[in-house]
Amino acid sequence: MNRCNRFASLKSWLWGLGALGLVACGNRLDTAKVEAAIKADIERQGRRLSIDSVLCPSDITRQAEAYFRCVGELSPEGSFTVNVIQQDNQGNVTWEVPNSKALLNLPKIEDSIQQGLSQAYGKRAQIDCGTSTYRVNQPGDRFECQVVGSLETDTSTIESVLVKVDSDGNLSWQELPSPGAVAAAAGVNPVAGRPAAATTQSSPQPSSPVKTTSVTGPTGRAINRPYIPGDSD
Fold first, then answer.
1. pTM of the complete model beyond 0.90
2. Are residues 63 and 117 in the same domain?
């Protein structure tokens, strides 16, 4: 029996108070349902994790855009925060779990890595940390996230990112270049792990100089472009 039903049962004993109770309860959010939904969703979207409980305040009034917090408890230990926002006054809510010392939100980690790579190289990269949404934050843990389609830089090809969790539960990540790029730089066969066989190459022949001609650009500045037959020599 939920909180509203328990309160409404007083109607059979105290008609006056029961009526007031029903009015108040009708405008109160059923946080028991919110707790159950959050717990089930995190376990369904999590990677090998179990939730002992999710506890929300019991006296939340239904109000659009109103915000409150719930606290989740992992099994066997570890607590995390859940931020909840009411979408309307009908009991519809949305919620999110920020990264914490207990639980990791992998989509948020993907966004952070994407922003970091974009700032470093001026290129957008899509990051994939797996199909799970939540992962237990374990000190000393490490896992890889893939760079979808890889990311070409001036010096290497980045195919994945290694995420590390230190002893305090803090996150850091580093780029992992493709094995082929590392092997080529070291002169190692990327398949067999042995030094790559030397190849004989002929000395490059000097190329003929490209003939150019000077034309006036749209701003009046002289521009050199390749010579086209018919240009005035």
1. no
2. no
Count: domains in the chain: 2
pLDDT at 177: 83
53 vs 36, 107, 119, CA distance in Å?
9, 23, 39
Chain centroid to CA 106: how far? 5
pLDDT given for residue 168 in this prediction? 83
Report residue 158 as tokens: 């980045």
- From 98, 124, 158, the end of a domain falls on 98
Average pLDDT over residues 78-96: 94
Distance CA 96, CA 90 (A): 19
137 close to 98: Cβ distance less than 8 angstroms: no
**Using CA atoms, how far apart are residues 11 and 23, in angstroms rounded to an integer?**
12
25 and 92 belong to one structural domain: yes
Secondary structure (H, E, C), 8-54: HHHHHCCHHHHHHHHHHHHCECCHHHHHHHHHHHHHHHEECCEEEEE
Average per-residue pLDDT for the chain: 75
Average pLDDT (15-42) is 70
Domain carrying residue 175: 104-186
